Each structure stands twice: as structure tokens, then as C-alpha cells.
């Protein structure tokens, strides 16, 4: 049996046995591999980097979807940048109060191949009548749209490939413009221990653009190197200041059945260790 070796970091990496190769090839944009591993289930990787596995995806998707949505408390319109496997959409459509979801993905083949080989990730969300799918670049979309959103979620790949533009000043400025008054932007922001520049760079951009900003954390086993960070930004302090009792009440009222998210984990996720604070403070 061959092994899949991740090439994200020089001199350090994870290796997963390919127990069954399901797909390998180049899309217009990226190199895509989907395989089965006995421990992690089906695994999808883009350009040498593990994107998701069936075993641990719930940690990432529940955190990135439910933290901004339940902190806001009255979300009707959501924008998702980077659809990929559809795991984020699966969690978003579980919120009954959401009326419209716009999802922008640069690489249609990723969606099609994940729908075929990782159907549990999207679990029907790609067919939800509230969803409008746009194939195109996320930065182009936020730079040109006149639509406004309560929550924007950037579920991107790492900077380097097509997602580089989703980590620049233009992207954050345009997201700020596209948010409603109490709206929240939440972003995939890498593993700070191994990708420190992503944390310090995003902090600089968010500080220059938003009234309220910060980061929240979750440890996802196949995003190796410790806890990963998610960017948080808003034009008001309201959503992040939501207290524990309110989060507990909203979570109970949502009827969500989760495996990772709960109100206590939500609140604790915003506590950052010293080495991350130092990266943020420069
Ligand atoms: N949901 C994944 C997970 O579980 O980790 C996160 C990664 S998801 C596969 C990232 C998606 O973002 C990919 O499908 C990629 O094609 C897409 N993407 C990258 N750059 C983009 C851009 N500039 N605009 C829109 N989508 C982009």
C-alpha cells in the first residue's frame, strides 16, 4: 500500500496510508486526491495538503459555522467563500432561520468530485433550495456584489494557490463592506505554531479594517501542529460579547445535535495562549 505524504511543511509532515485510491488528477486549478484510510475514513487533499477527512471534519465544520451564526443570533443571509466538500454548507443549512446562502467556489470540479466520493460531507446541502452557488473567485465576488450578509465564512485553502487573494487587504476590506451592521466574518486562518505569518498578517489586516476582531481556536488532528486559528471580524462588538447564558439558550433553541460544538467550547475558543498573543501584537 502506498502512503500519502503531505507536502505543506518543509522537513515535517503527516503521512496517511492509502488503503484505497478513489480519485487522483488535476482540475483546472489544483491537484486533487481522494482516498480511503482505515483510521480517518475518506480523505481529500488539494495541492499536497490534506483538506478534510471523514473522521475529524466535524470539529472544523461545526466550529467555523456555528460560532459566528450562534454568536450573531439572528442570521438570515450567509455568504460562503470556498465550498469544496460542502461540509460548511451542511452545518449552515441546519439553522432553520437562515433564508439565503450564497456560496462561491473557484473550482467546480472539487465540488463535483467531493459530491461523488465524500457525500456525507455535504449530506444533501448542495441541493438545499436556499443555496445559490456561484462558480468564480471569492475576491471578485465580494469586490463586485451589492448584496449584504449577516455572516461571511471564508472556508479557504491555505494561501499559496488560488486562495492567496483571500488573505489580502482587498478581501478583508470588501468583506467589511458586504456585512450588515452586526454581521460577522469568520475565516480559516491556519495553524499558528507552524504558520505564524498567517496569524500576524491577518491580525494586521483585521485591525486596520474592522471595529471588532480576534481569533478563535480548535484542534483538528489532521491540520497538524497544534490548534488551528479562525479569524473573527465584525463592524460591531455585539456578536462577540454574547454571554454564555445566551449562547446556551440559542444552542438549545437551535435543536442542533453536535459532536464538537457547545456554548462552553464556543466561549473558550476565544482564549489565546501567550505565543499567539505575541504574534498578534507584533
Ligand atoms: N472544507 C474544507 C475542510 O474541511 O477543510 C476546507 C477547504 S475547502 C476544500 C477550500 C475550497 O476553497 C477549495 O474547494 C478551493 O477550490 C476553494 N478556493 C480556493 N481559493 C478560492 C478562491 N479564491 N475563491 C473561491 N474558492 C476558492
Automatic annotation (TrEMBL):
It comes from the Bacteria. S-methyl-5'-thioadenosine binds at residues 30, 105, 137-138, 162. GO terms for biological process: spermidine biosynthetic process. Spermidine binds at residues 61, 85, 155-158. Residues 1-235 form the PABS domain. The gene is speE1. It is an enzyme of class 2 (transferase). Pathway: Amine and polyamine biosynthesis; spermidine biosynthesis; spermidine from putrescine: step 1/1. GO terms for molecular function: spermidine synthase activity. Keywords: Polyamine biosynthesis, Spermidine biosynthesis, Transferase. It holds the Pfam family Spermine_synth. It catalyses: S-adenosyl 3-(methylsulfanyl)propylamine + putrescine = S-methyl-5'-thioadenosine + spermidine + H(+). GO terms for cellular component: cytosol. The active site is at 155 (proton acceptor). Catalyzes the irreversible transfer of a propylamine group from the amino donor S-adenosylmethioninamine (decarboxy-AdoMet) to putrescine (1,4-diaminobutane) to yield spermidine. This is Polyamine aminopropyltransferase. Homodimer or homotetramer. The keyword Transferase applies. Belongs to the spermidine/spermine synthase family. Its EC number is 2.5.1.16.
Amino acid at each position: 500500500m502506498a502512503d500519502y505524504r503531505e507536502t505543506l511543511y518543509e522537513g515535517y509532515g503527516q503521512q496517511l496510508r492509502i488503503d484505497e485510491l478513489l480519485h487522483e488528477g488535476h482540475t483546472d486549478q489544483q491537484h486533487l486526491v481522494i482516498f480511503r484510510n482505515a483510521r480517518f475514513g475518506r480523505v481529500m487533499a488539494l495541492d499536497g495538503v490534506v483538506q478534510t477527512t471523514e473522521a475529524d471534519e466535524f470539529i472544523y465544520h461545526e466550529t467555523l459555522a456555528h460560532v459566528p451564526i450562534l454568536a450573531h443570533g439572528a442570521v438570515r443571509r450567509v455568504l460562503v467563500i470556498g465550498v469544496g466538500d460542502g461540509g460548511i454548507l451542511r452545518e449552515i443549512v441546519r439553522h432553520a432561520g437562515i433564508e439565503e446562502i450564497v456560496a462561491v467556489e473557484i473550482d467546480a470540479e472539487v465540488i463535483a468530485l467531493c459530491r461523488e466520493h465524500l457525500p456525507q460531507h455535504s449530506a444533501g446541502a448542495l441541493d438545499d433550495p436556499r443555496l445559490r452557488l456561484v462558480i468564480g473567485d471569492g475576491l471578485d465576488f465580494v469586490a463586485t456584489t451589492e448584496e449584504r450578509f449577516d455572516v461571511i465564512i471564508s472556508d479557504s485553502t491555505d494561501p499559496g494557490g488560488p486562495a492567496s487573494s483571500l488573505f489580502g487587504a482587498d478581501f478583508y476590506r470588501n468583506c467589511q463592506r458586504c456585512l450588515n451592521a452586526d454581521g460577522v466574518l469568520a475565516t480559516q486562518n491556519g495553524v499558528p505554531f507552524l504558520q505564524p505569518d498567517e496569524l500576524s498578517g491577518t491580525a494586521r489586516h483585521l485591525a486596520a479594517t474592522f471595529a471588532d476582531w480576534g481569533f478563535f481556536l480548535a484542534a483538528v488532528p489532521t491540520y497538524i501542529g497544534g490548534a488551528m486559528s479562525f479569524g473573527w471580524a465584525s463592524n460591531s462588538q455585539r456578536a462577540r460579547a454574547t454571554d454564555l447564558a445566551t449562547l446556551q439558550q440559542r444552542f438549545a433553541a437551535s435543536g442542533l445535535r453536535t459532536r464538537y460544538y457547545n456554548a462552553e467550547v464556543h466561549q473558550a475558543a476565544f482564549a489565546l495562549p501567550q505565543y499567539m498573543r505575541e504574534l498578534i501584537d507584533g
